[in-house]
Write a structure and sequence with these properties.
Blueprint lengths: L3 E5 L1 E3 L15 E6 L8 E7 L5 E6 L5 E6 L5 E4 L13 E6 L5 E6 L5 E7 L2 E4 L7 E7 L5 E6 L5 E7 L2 E5 L6 E8 L5 E6 L5 E6 L7 E2 L10 E6 L5 E6 L5 E7 L2 E5 L8 E6 L4 E6 L7 E8 L1
Antiparallel strand pairs: 1-3, 2-23, 3-26, 4-5, 5-6, 6-7, 8-9, 9-10, 10-11, 12-13, 13-14, 14-15, 16-17, 17-18, 18-19, 20-21, 21-22, 22-23, 24-25, 25-26
Length: about 300
């Protein structure tokens, strides 16, 4: 049985005024490690839907990485592609987002070394083709099937993207010079986007109008490295990862206008908040390890 660890979220005060501030409600988070199989060397948890199905990947006992959906309508789905690399120790295939219908978004590295973005539903992969792209990663998907992610063009420049049906919108937030990535999208079409500026620090934004305007997102307590925004749910809650002034990583939940910092008790200072559903169940990773860390799921309690 997996152990559960409960911690109290730290309320981060953004602005103090002299009168009339009501105390923010206390949130408590109960963490558990996620293990895809009993023999998995590592399980990465990136996305979670409202049925608590977790999208991610795991590394088996032979060191081979597989995409997976864990829980929800199906207890466990393992997904592989014959045209993607499967050598032990390679970064081969993973799911990053999952919608309420169980459709996942992800990407793999094919046997020619090219990264391919796709959606996955009921055993079928559907590749995403962006004209002029030399690689594509699909990361997030909403219930209407709109997909967000990142691609690199023929000049080697990385862009975020939003794909609604056959309509492609390129997302290039202000100040971002590299690694532009659209990570999450909710049913209202609000997209989370992050990237890196010329100083090598993270900048994060939301956009509700397909990139016409961007709203900056900063976690209070972030240091110069900044904040990497991740998922947004249908209530407008956001989960992200921020780096403090000592470059330690922490998760942060933005909920009802307040910011709550959190760490898995086994990974204080190395916690990444990545996925979030409408019920404030979060997933992410902590630590590092041979394959990048330990996946967790965390339930939020008022």
């Amino acid at each position: 049985m997996q152990s559960r660890k409960t911690v109290i979220g730290v309320f981060l005060l953004v602005l103090c005024v002299s009168v009339g501030i009501a105390a923010a409600p206390t949130l408590t988070f109960t963490f558990r490690d996620v293990l895809a199989t009993q023999t998995a060397q590592e399980t990465d948890t990136y996305g979670i839907n409202n049925k608590n199905a977790i999208a991610g990947d795991y590394v088996d006992s032979a060191g081979v990485q597989h995409a997976m959906i864990l829980g929800g309508m199906n207890a466990f789905i393992r997904a592989d592609r014959s045209d993607c690399v499967s050598a032990p120790g390679s970064t081969s295939i993973a799911f990053y987002g999952i919608n309420s219908a169980g459709v996942a978004a992800g990407w793999c590295t094919n046997t020619s070394g090219v990264q391919i973005g796709f959606t996955y539903a009921r055993g079928t992969f559907t590749d995403i083709h962006i004209p002029g792209a030399i690689l594509t990663n699909a990361v997030g998907i909403n219930d209407a099937g709109a997909v967000v992610g990142t691609y690199v063009d023929s000049s080697g420049i990385q862009h975020g993207f939003l794909l609604v049906g056959s309509t492609l919108t390129t997302l290039n937030p202000p100040g971002v010079t590299s690694l532009a990535t659209a990570w999450g999208i909710n049913n209202a079409g609000v997209v989370t986007v992050f990237g890196v500026n010329s100083s090598g620090n993270y900048l994060s934004f939301t956009t509700a109008d397909r990139g016409t305007t961007y709203t900056p997102f900063h976690a209070p307590g972030e240091g110069s490295i900044g904040t990497a925004i991740h998922e947004i749910n249908n209530n407008g809650d956001i989960v992200a990862t921020y780096f403090d002034s000592s470059s330690n990583r922490h998760g942060v939940l933005f909920h009802t206008g307040q910011y709550y910092s959190f760490d898995d008790p086994n990974g204080v200072g190395s916690t990444r908040g990545v996925g979030l559903n409408d019920n404030l169940v979060m997933v992410g990773r902590y630590g590092s390890g041979v394959y990048g860390g330990v996946g967790f799921a965390a339930v939020t309690h008022p």
